[in-house]
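Figure S7 source data.
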Amino acid sequence: MIQRAMFMCFVVLLASCNESPYMQGKRLYAANCANCHMDDGSGLASLIPPLKSSKLIGDVSMACVIAYGIRDTIFRDSVFLPREMPSFTRLSETEVTNIINYVNHTWHNDFKETTILDVEAALKKCPK
Ligand code: HEC
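Tokens for the predicted heme C complex:
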């Protein structure tokens, strides 16, 4: 009986090691971002920039991009293509924080936790 209980504990430990500590962020990323930036953050050719190598990884001003989007164009084959990142006004500050932590934890070598207070402060300073 004791052996069985110990075995079960071991299984539970293994399972928890494999889970990302930012499960909500991971889920939100999958639901809101991965269709464009891909699950592995690699983006889509020249239309969608990769996230894993973005200069905004590790930078809290990523909150501005998520909350307000980017309206931009690229010039290719003699035409301007719209290259628009939608805004996510429906995401709460907690959800934005969780996405940022998931993304940074996954693709930033020098990970530091971002807090909701950091995100609130960054959102007040977004370029309008
Ligand atoms: C409909 C497609 C689409 C979705 C969904 C989307 N993005 Fe984007 N994202 C883009 C495009 C296109 C750009 C480039 C915009 C530009 O520079 O003109 C971009 C740019 C970015 C950038 C800036 C990258 C850089 O290095 O300049 C970040 C950060 C980012 N997105 C994060 C996210 C996150 C986080 C989510 C989910 C909450 C998300 N995006 C959802 C299309 C999308």
